[in-house]
Fold this sequence. Notes:
This protein has about 110 residues and is mainly α. It is built from five helices and no strands.
Amino acid sequence: DRSSAASDVYKRQEPDIDTRGFISKQIESFPLLERDVLRLSLGLGLGESYEIMHSNDEIAEILNETKETIEKNWSNGMKRLRDVSQKEKLRQENEDAYKKNRRIEIKLTGR
């Protein structure tokens, strides 16, 4: 039957939440220094086989920058990441609302 097939399509699927992957993907478009500072401070690494969360002092030494430059880039990067995350949350909420409304429409109209 058509309505049960449609409802199967719209069944809510639990998303696979991969926070590290999400953050890594989002910061790829950030300016290089911001991206490197966030990767090191959040333990995402710069390609090493293990990930360690580094302090601002350690990051300044690793990247050969002043602590103040690291702090500024960390602050800017975290603000940018927060903005991106809020936009993604709104996008997901809109998509969920659309799917819910579509399921209701299918139930009411049968198509």
